[in-house]
């Protein structure tokens, strides 16, 4: 914790503190009155607690002991404290200037980090001056070259510490030298594994599973946090979920781990479980804003208007000038159908953080609703520039180009989205419909996509019906009957009714009659007699035809059949 304060890595300090509070206390030493919170009744705790997990991470594996870094007692003294004060006031160049003649490791790191942030600040200012707050420009951090030269010399002299290695890796990553950046970050976390920021930067450089497995990382419980997050980014959701549930054996009350489990469940589209976890998080941490935008996405998908309204009011009163708060309020207005106002809040989120991925993607969705496809395309492209693995933005680009009558472009983007999220049936269905477009008319490819969707937990029950219709269109009546029957069974199980059920019953009745399976056809016809539309008369006609075929007698009048 002390290093988080000294070295200005605030994100790392926040995460470390959350895990400290999340560790279950020894009941022998701490009575209920002495515990930090009264949390024994937590439903999340009961749900995810695994009694086989001990307080030692990964039983049977010996972890390397991590040396605690030693600081010079008399280094830089007053100059360091003065520079730290300037740094906290965001006077970065002033802080760096104060430390120009200091040689202690703390002072060297603070000086270099201050210069790096000064360069980032100037880069953002140039972006605004050239293109506006949401514009794109080629502005770069002009301190990177000098920082790389200085940090390289410090490393060669052996006078760089793990935090300096972290900064060196960050500089090289910005300059595009990802391989060396990974090596430096690995060296940093192996020397001092508690720097969450270094793990986070390393995770962003692990773009494939092969790269992840090739990293020579020491065994440490922080490695488990890193792997869980890396698996999540690489869309290995089940592996990520297993890691987080494992870590929960030690960090039993960690809100951070609960939030990460919710994120994984969200990726798996387990919305009911996600909702339970977020409700528990808000009970334990009622002023939490972080990650609540994902909760609002779940409420939006489930059309829980009152719950989303309450959440929007809650974050507005807590901190209305947070990107997450603006996204939640944007979702609220979108659900109300007020798309212009929704866009206003997403743009506000981007003014607060122009790299807010969720805001770019959601704003693209709003522009689609407003039929403003050029603006939607621009928003989606900004999203994939920030994170090329954002499948929702690739899907949105496919939708936009499909609306513009450009199915070949749309198909390209739909393919990218399903590659990134192959377990999402909606993406397969969108690609299948694109194949069905009159310009493409690739029905066999559409059938393959619908089959993928049917095997990917198609919650909307679209794929089976479309498969039946396509096979019927291609004259494959047996295959059509197979999918109509499966679709009918699903509708019965879910107690759904509607035109799809009528269509399935009519086809199956006719098909079974043609195949002389009269008893089965009569069952379907009898069910159609319960309807009041033209399908009832069709069913009567089919029954008459079957009676004639079976008996060889002349046609009976309609009065012989029940009304």
TrEMBL record:
Gene3D superfamilies: Tetratricopeptide repeat domain. Residues 9-262 form the Cdc23 domain. InterPro entries: APC8, TPR-like_helical_dom_sf, TPR_rpt. Keywords: Cell cycle, Cell division, Mitosis, Repeat, TPR repeat, Ubl conjugation pathway. TPR repeats lie at residues 323-356, 357-390, 391-424. SUPFAM superfamilies: TPR-like. PROSITE patterns: TPR. GO terms for biological process: cell division. It holds the Pfam family TPR_8. This is Cdc23 domain-containing protein. It comes from Eucalyptus globulus (Tasmanian blue gum). The lineage of its organism: Eukaryota, Viridiplantae, Streptophyta, Embryophyta, Tracheophyta.
């Amino acid at each position: 914790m002390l290093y988080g304060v000294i070295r200005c890595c605030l994100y790392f300090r926040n995460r470390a503190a959350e895990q400290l509070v999340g560790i279950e206390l020894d009941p022998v030493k701490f009575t209920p009155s002495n515990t930090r919170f009264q949390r024994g009744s937590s439903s999340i705790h009961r749900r995810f607690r695994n009694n086989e997990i001990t307080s030692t991470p990964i039983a049977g594996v010996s972890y390397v002991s991590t040396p605690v870094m030693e600081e010079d007692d008399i280094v830089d003294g007053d100059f360091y404290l003065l520079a730290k004060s300037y740094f906290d006031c965001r006077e970065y160049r002033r802080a760096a200037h104060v430390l120009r003649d200091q040689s202690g490791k703390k002072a060297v790191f603070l000086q270099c980090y201050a210069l790096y942030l000064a360069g980032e600040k100037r880069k953002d200012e140039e972006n605004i001056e050239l293109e506006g707050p949401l514009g794109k420009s080629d502005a770069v951090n002009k301190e990177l070259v000098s920082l790389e030269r200085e940090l390289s010399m410090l490393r060669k002299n052996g006078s760089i510490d793990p935090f300096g290695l972290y900064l060196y890796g960050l500089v090289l990553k910005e300059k595009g030298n990802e391989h060396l950046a990974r090596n430096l970050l690995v060296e940093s976390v192996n020397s001092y594994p508690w720097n969450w920021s270094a793990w986070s930067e390393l995770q962003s450089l692990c773009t494939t599973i092969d790269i992840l497995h090739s990293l020579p990382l020491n065994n440490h419980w922080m490695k488990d946090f890193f792997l869980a997050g890396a698996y999540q980014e690489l869309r290995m959701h089940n592996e990520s979920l297993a890691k987080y549930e494992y870590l929960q054996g030690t960090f039993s009350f960690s809100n951070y781990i609960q939030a990460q489990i919710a994120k994984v469940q969200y990726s798996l589209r387990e919305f009911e479980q996600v909702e339970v976890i977020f409700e528990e998080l808000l009970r334990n941490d009622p002023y939490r804003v972080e990650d609540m935008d994902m909760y609002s996405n779940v409420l939006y998908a489930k059309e829980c208007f009152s719950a989303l309204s309450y959440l929007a009011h809650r974050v507005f009163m807590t901190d209305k000038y947070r990107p997450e708060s603006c996204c939640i309020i944007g979702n609220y207005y979108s659900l109300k159908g007020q798309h212009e106002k929704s866009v206003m809040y997403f743009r506000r989120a981007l003014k607060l953080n122009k790299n807010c991925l969720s805001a770019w993607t959601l704003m693209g969705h709003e522009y689609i609703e407003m039929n403003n496809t050029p603006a939607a395309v621009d928003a989606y492209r900004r999203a994939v520039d920030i994170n090329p693995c954002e499948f929702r933005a690739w899907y949105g680009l496919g939708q936009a180009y499909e609306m513009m009558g450009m199915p070949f472009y749309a198909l390209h983007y739909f393919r990218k989205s399903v590659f990134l999220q192959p377990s999402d049936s909606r993406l397969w269905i969108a690609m299948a419909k694109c194949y069905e477009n009159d310009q493409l008319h690739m029905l066999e490819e559409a059938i393959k996509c619908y089959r993928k969707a049917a095997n990917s937990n198609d919650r909307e029950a679209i794929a089976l019906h479309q498969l039946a219709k396509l096979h019927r269109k291609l004259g494959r009546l047996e295959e059509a009957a197979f999918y109509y029957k499966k679709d009918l069974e699903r509708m019965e199980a879910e107690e759904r009714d509607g035109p799809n059920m009528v269509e399935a019953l009519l086809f199956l009745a006719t098909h079974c009659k043609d195949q002389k399976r009269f008893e089965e056809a009569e069952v379907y016809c009898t069910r159609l007699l319960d309807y009041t539309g033209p399908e009832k008369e069709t069913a009567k006609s089919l029954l008459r035809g079957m009676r004639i075929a079976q008996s060889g007698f002349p046609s009976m009048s309609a009065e012989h059949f029940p009304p």
